[in-house]
Amino acid sequence: MANYTLQINNKNYRVDVEEDTPLLWVLRDNLGLVGTKYGCGIAQCGACTVHLNGTAVRSCVLPVSAIGTKKITTIEGLSAHGEHPVQKAWSELDVPQCGYCQAGQMMTAAAFLSKNSKPSSEQIEEAMNGNICRCGTYHRIREAVALAATKRK
Amino acid sequence: MAGGGFLLSFRWTDALTAPLTESAAGEVSFNSYLSISPDNVITILSPNPEVGQNIKTSFPMIVAEELDADWKNVKVVQANLDTQKFNRQATAGSGAMQHSWDRLRKAGATARLMLMEAAAKRWNVSSATLTTENGFVLHKETGRKLNYGALATEAATMAVPTEVKFKAKKDYKLIGKPIHNVDNAEMITGKPLYGLDVYREGMLLAMIERPPFGTKIKSADVTAAKAMPGIVDVVIFKDKVAVLGKSTWQVTKARKLLKVEYEPDGAVESTADHDRLMKQLLDKAEVKPSRKDGDVEAVFKTAAKVITREYQAPFLSHACMEPMNFFAHVRSDGVELIGPAQLPEDTRKNVAKLLGVELEKITLEMTRMGGGFGRRQRSDYSMEAAELSSLLKAPVKVMWTREDDMRGGQYRPAMRYRFQAALDAEGNWIGYRMRGVGVNSGNSTRPDHFPAGAVPNFLVDSIDHKSPVTTSPWRAPSENFLGFAEQSFFDEIATAANRDPIEYRLAYLDKAKKSPTGAVKYDIDRMKGVIELVEEKSGWGKNKKVFQGFSAYFSHGSYIAQVAEIEMQNGNPVLLKMYAAVDCGVVVNLSGAYQQVKGGIIDGLGHALYGEVTLKDGVPDQKNFDTYRLIRMKEIPDIEVYFVDSAINPTGLGEPALPPAAAALANAFFKATGKRLYNQPFMKEEVMKGVKLG
Question: Given a cut of 60, is residue B32 above it in pLDDT?
């Protein structure tokens, strides 16, 4: 066990966990931030996607000891009340079906759009291809990413 | 309409910050579904389990429609299991809407009449002179109006009317509109909604090592696991070994140190055994037919042409994105259950039986489910939680990892079909014979499906192999593969008869209508309606640069015809587009309905292309999404969906779009390449070598 200070959603959290604990389980078990989901545990589905210094990473395979002072953003920190352009677009296009994968989808989309503000349809597909949606809401996700791009200032 | 949903989502965000009790103060209940508070909050309970079929939005819409409520004032609450108030709190067989349509309408309509009676009394006028609009009772003569909240307390004391008249379809304000998911705000902000999100004071997390199919524990050494930090206990029960602790990761690590040996406990089967067994069953002679018309033996002897084809499908994982999990707290005075359950009543019964506790002492709270697809109709995982909580005398949440879910789970049964068609010299379809066999599949056929009634000599039968491999319903049970097999076969028959597949199908549907053989249990006009609609919308046969494949299927009360469109790009067939024409009666929620159809098609295509669980000595070869491939965004075609304008009571929509999808693709693939697909997953077929779809 070791102590870590994590910067999550602009707040500092102190946790005492084993150093190989994946960030996903620190968020869920220790900090009650359950918006980040477990889907596969091997970085194949994208349900656990969070931002590390603004880049999308898979928290299910990211050991807490590797984070250091990097800033973490989870779905709970994307905005206070769902007003991030990606969240607005998701709501406007009524994207979720079961909804379980959508936090990961949105985190991937938000990180992608922060680096590519005017993406083509092909670039969106390329960026989102690592996130599985078992319900098959892919059309709406693709549309929502394009819509979110137009909402960013 | 997008604007409406936008407003809705804001309302729900606001609602999150307000305590429930405050807005609901003094609310009065009108019936099981509906209560109204004096400050005009309309609370509608949604009794059915939500797996992503959108029932939590669609059901309350129906109550609100007949109530003539303002949707902006409606607050939807997921009901717990309550067999006193509700019946059929179940997600199964796309049957919820068909079962509850009138009940929901009545709940809204009776309350509306009671509100009008209350207003009539207060204003001392006849209720016949009153109307309602958007949550108000109006007396147009005098210009008086009151909102429902102001009348609620009085209205609830009125006699409940026994006769109600439902709205005409043309007067709908909500039904048929794209109303947004009532949980959107929570979902997009990451609020706890799912079973896996349940955390309680003192709760233990449990992971369980389960035996390979057909085996039992021979020996188990749990010493090392038990000694690991954070581990509270290791328990052996029913040939399973449970590791319980305070954190998921500590339990995960300790579990790896278990040393468990297994020995056979009956048959230990592999996919090779199932291949052999199913082939034997297809060849078996005597079986009692489930439907027989005319004289099949005779017509096959004299036919000018006999076509025989076989189709095979592997086991599939349900692969719900949220793996199986359940919370249980067994106390001396009762049992608390929380989690994902498609058949919560079964879950409670099974837990009651397991623990020897009266049903009344068990509460069950339904969480939103990260997919179900039939897997959560079983209560194996909830019973595990109850048993462990009972043994440990602590609240327990059982969590299955993805590997547990895929390897120790329940599967879509592996199946085979053999079809035979007899044609005369003119290409007339005079005989039909089909057999379905499967591993724990039950009856894998639908004996009254087309061409029943249309082909005079007809025989369908099925054989089931009983196996230790656990199976359960998988979205559109049996039909998820039967739809592909049957619709591919019909395409071959039309091709053999030198006829256009749509024209040929319509001709035989006409025949079933004009001169049926035996009973016809599908609606020929509805079936023709969707076929003609998809023919028109897809521009069938008009664009010579693309290759189109057709399929049409009836299941769960609904009719769907599909056309897949393939274009050759650099010598490769690419699935660019699908068209779907749907008759599901009245469309309740247009936004949800579009997504059910598109998602069903994507699900059908994805599993047909990639899905497969194979077994070696009772152990699945696939463990996770690296070896069990799901369809991804880059592979999806564009999909156009058209609904038949219908006034028939709603029929199923969660499943019907899936069965015909793979056949439309396979039939288009044949047009483009001259090659047929018979076995799933398609990507393992010889003819698919080097082919890139999508």
Answer: yes
A100/B194 touch (CB, cutoff 8 Å), yes or no: yes
Residue from A75, A67, A77 nearest A36 by CA: A75
In B, minimum Cα distance to A89 occurs at B6
Average pLDDT (B213-222) is 97
Say which of A42, A88, A106 has its CB closest to residue B624: A42
- Pick from B5, B600, B624: CB nearest A94: B5
Tell me what ipTM this predicted complex has.
0.98
Question: Helices A121-128 and A138-151: crossing angle, nearest 10°?
Answer: 120
The domains of chain A, with CATH numbers, are: 2-77 (3.10.20.30), 85-151 (1.10.150.120)
Residues of A in contact with B595 (CB under 8 A): 94, 97, 135, 137, 140
Q: Which pLDDT tens digit goes with each residue over B586-639?
A: 999 999 999 999 999 999 999 999 999 999 999 999 999 999 999 999 999 999
Distances (CA, A) of B686 to B386, B578, B680: 48, 24, 11
| Chain A nearest-CA residue for B182 | A94
Angle at CA B399, nearest 5°, toward B395 and B400? 155
Number of H helices, E strands in chain A: 5, 5
Mean per-residue pLDDT, B490-512: 97
The verdict on pTM exceeding 0.90 is yes
B640 in contact with chain A, both atoms CB, cutoff 8 A: no
Per-residue pLDDT at B253 exceeds 60: yes
Residues of B in contact with A128 (CB under 8 A): 633
For residue B375, the chain A residues in CB contact (below 8 A) are: none
Q: What is the DSSP string of B390-418?
A: HHHTS-EEEE--HHHHHHSS-EEPPEEEE
- Asked if the model's pLDDT at residue B522 lies above 50, the reply is yes
**Cβ contact B184–A142 (<8 Å):** no
**Could you give the strand order of the β-sheet that contains B291-293, starting from the edge strand earlier in sequence?**
B291-293, B457-465, B429-439, B415-423, B305-313
Crossing angle for the helix pair A85-92 and A102-115, nearest 10 degrees? 130
* The B28-29 sheet, strands edge to edge: B28-29, B34-36, B42-46, B74-78
Contact A141 B54 (CB under 8 A): no
* Residue A51 Cα distances to A9, A67, A104, B476, B656, angstroms: 10, 11, 10, 38, 39
